[in-house]
Every structure is written in structure tokens, then in C-alpha cells.
Design a protein that fits this description.
This protein is an all-alpha fold and about 90 residues long. Helix content is about 55%, strand content about 0%. The chain contains 2 helices and no strands. The longest helix has 25 residues, at about 15-40. The N and C termini lie far apart (about 40 Å).
Length: about 90
């Protein structure tokens, strides 16, 4: 598996931003898995646990977006951008 910015020294991407981009991608995959699990959670306690984990995950994603705005793209966890229409 090749990661842009790690394997290609001429990629011109900051190594920290490259690492954050990859981590963000993994967090998004985990969020999708948790969301699917939330829909089929067998008990209220299980749903509460998954919801708590999703909340923590959202905080991590928001921190990455604040620290590395250049990798922040349209994203399911981000709030409305200033000036964006609300649905």
C-alpha cells in the first residue's frame, strides 16, 4: 500500500499533513462502521456506548480539521461552513 507523501519524497506534501490525512481517512472508515453498528445495536446500553465513541471520534476529526485545514474537505462530521445554507 502506498501513501502519497510518505513513499514519494517529491510529493511536496508536509509529512505531518500526510499522516493526518491518512489518519482522518481511517477515522472516517471507523465512523461508518460505528454508524452501521448503531443501527443494529441490540440494547440501549450498546447504543449509548457506540454514541459515546462516535462523539469522541467527531472531536478527533474536528481537531484534525482545525490543525490541518488544507486536508479538510467536504466531510460528514463537519458543521455548516460560514455562509453555507442550512438544510
Amino acid at each position: 500500500m502506498q501513501y502519497r507523501g510518505f513513499d514519494d519524497p517529491d510529493a511536496g506534501e508536509d509529512p505531518e499533513a500526510a499522516q493526518a490525512r491518512i489518519f482522518l481517512s481511517e477515522l472516517e472508515k471507523h465512523a461508518a462502521t460505528l454508524t452501521r453498528g448503531l443501527q443494529s445495536a441490540p440494547t440501549p446500553e450498546a447504543r449509548q456506548s457506540i454514541t459515546a465513541e462516535l462523539s469522541a471520534l467527531r472531536r478527533y476529526v474536528d481537531r484534525i480539521h482545525r490543525r490541518f485545514p488544507e486536508i479538510a474537505v467536504a466531510h460528514p462530521f463537519r458543521g455548516n461552513q460560514p455562509g453555507a445554507p442550512t438544510l
